[in-house]
Amino acid sequence: MQYAEITGWGKYTPPAILTNDDLATFLETSDEWISSRTGIKERRISHINTAEMSALAAKHALASAGIEADDLDLIIIATSCPDTLVPNTASRVQQLLGSNNAACFDLSSACTGFLYALQNATAQIRFGAAKKALVIGAERMSWFLNWNKRDTAVLFGDGAGAVILEATDQPYGLLNAKLGCDSNARDILSINNFGTDMDRYINPPSELDISFQGQDIFKRAVRGMGKATETVMEEAGLSVEDVDLLVPHQANIRIIETLQSKLKLRDDQVMVNIQNYGNTSAATVPIALCEALEQGKVKAGDKIMSAAFGAGLTWGAAYIKW
Ligand code: ACO
Fold first, then answer.
1. Which residue segments constitute the domains of the chain, with CATH numbers given?
2. Among 115, 218, 287, 314, which is best to mutate for testing ligand 1, by the most ligand atoms less than 8 A from CB?
3. What is the pLDDT of residues 166-187, one digit of tens each?
4. Which residue's alpha carbon is nearest to atom 25 within ligand 1?
5. Residue ranges of region ACP-binding (predicted)?
6. ipTM score of the complex?
7. Less Cβ around it within 10 Å: N or C end of the chain?
C-alpha cells in the first residue's frame, strides 16, 4: 500500500504589511470594526506575482524535504489568482524552480483549493502515477480587490504555502478527506467581470471585483466545514481528544470560533493566524500549517484535521497523520 507523507513545507508571506489603521486612512472603516467582526489586524500585500510567491514557498519546502526541484514529478498549484490564463501558473513555477520532470497544473477551487490539491496529489501518489509532488496554495488577492469597497477590501491578503509529498509504505500524510460543492449557492460568492459568461459582467466592466453575501457565507461555512470535519473524524475513528491540531481556513475568527465550539475543541487544538494575514484564500491552510510547525505545535505522529470552505461553494475536510 502506498501513502503520501508530507516531508517538506514552506511559506512566503510578503514583507509589506497593511494594517487596519492604514486602511482607515483611505476607507470609511476602523481597526475596531475590522478586528471585532473578523479578527484581522493586518494583511500582507505582494509586489510579486502568484508564481513568484509560489516558487519562494516551494524552495523552502524543497529544502526542508532535502530534495531537488528536478526530483519532482508533479506540481499542483491551487489558486484563484493565476498569473496568466494560458499558459498555466504551475508551468511558470516549474520554470522558476528549474524543475524539468513534473506534470504541472492549476486547480481552481477557491479557499478549499489546497485541500482539493492535497487530495489529488495524494491520490496520484497512491495510484503510482507520481512519487514526489509539490502542492501549493497561493493567492494574490490584492489584485482583485476594489480598494474603494470597504466590505471586501478589509478581508483579504496575499501569500503562498507549499508542501512536498513523497511516496512511502508507512501510513502517513493525508489518510482521509471529504470534499464537496454546494453549487446551488454558487452565486453568493464571485469575482465579477472576468471569464466567458457575459451575463456576469457588471459595471464598470473593466474592473475585477469580488462580491459576496457575507452572512449567508458565514452560516454555510460553519455548517459545511463542521459536517465535513465530523464525517472525516467518524470515518477515521477519531474522537475530539485524538485531534492534536485543527488547521482551519482563515476567513473570519468568528467562523473559526463557532466551528471550534461545534466540534468541542480546546483553544490549544486550533491554529489561528488570521490576525496577521487576513483571508489568503487557498493559501491560508498551508501558511497556517507551516506556522504551526515553526511554532512547535506539530510533532511526529500527530493527528491533524483541516477544514475549508470557499467559492463554488466548495467545502472540505482532511485528516493528516504527521
Ligand atoms: N468598516 C466599517 N463598516 C463596514 C465595513 C467596514 N470595513 N464593511 C461593511 N460595513 C458596514 C456595512 O455597510 C453595514 O452597514 P449598515 O448596517 O449601515 O448597512 C454594517 O457594517 C454591517 O455589515 P454586514 O455585512 O452586515 O456585517 P457582518 O456582521 O455580516 O460582517 C463579514 C461582514 C465580516 C464579511 C461577515 O459577514 C463574514 O465574515 N462573512 C463570512 C466570511 C466571508 O464572507 N468571507 C469572504 C470570503 S469567503 C471565504 O473565505 C469562505
1. 3-171 (3.40.47.10), 175-321 (3.40.47.10)
2. 218
3. 999 999 999 999 999 999 999 8
4. 214
5. 250-254
6. 0.92
7. N
